[in-house]
Amino acid sequence: MNVVKRSLAVLATMAATAGVLTACTDEQAYCVDLAKYAAKAVDVDPQKPVDYVKILDEAKKLQESAPKDVKDDWGVVVTFAEKAKKAGTDAAQLAELSKQTGGVMTAYKNITSQAKDSCKVDLPALN
User: Fold this and answer.
1) Do residues 55 and 40 lie in contact, with contact meaning Cβ atoms separated by under 8 Å?
2) Tens-place pLDDT, residues 21-62
3) What does the pLDDT read at residue 13?
């Protein structure tokens, strides 16, 4: 019976360790993706909605893998980028979107802060 208890204890420890390693790996993967995103986002002017289309695919990926504390913020960025994509080259729609950048910039500031604190990644500054 002792062998069974030891085996169960070892299995339980291994399962717990695997869970911790998986969480760490997920966060590391998010940080790596965030660093890749940072390199692409250098050319994005947060005041120009059309620029958000450039980062839409990366933002969607980051929204899926983001930690809980910034997942909603990524949702704000993705939603805005999708609206910009839908607007296309329509100057009137893009002008209207330009008036709505405040919420996106707030979300981006939260993402930037978390990126620096948790991932040691510097995202391009907002203008």
Assistant:
1) yes
2) 344 467 788 999 999 888 888 877 766 788 888 888 889 999
3) 34
Q: Indicate yes or no: pTM above 0.70.
A: yes
User: What is the rounded CA–CA span in Å between residue 1 and residue 57?
Assistant: 55
> Which tokens in the block code for residue 127?
């203008």
Query: Which residue is associated with the tokens 């609206």?
Result: 83
Q: What is the CA radius of gyration of the chain?
A: 20
State both tokens at 61: 């990926």
Alpha-carbon distance 72 to 79, whole Å? Answer: 10
In 3D space, the residue among 108, 19, 102 whose CA is nearest the CA of residue 66 turns out to be 108
Cα distance between residue 117 and residue 68, in whole Å? 15
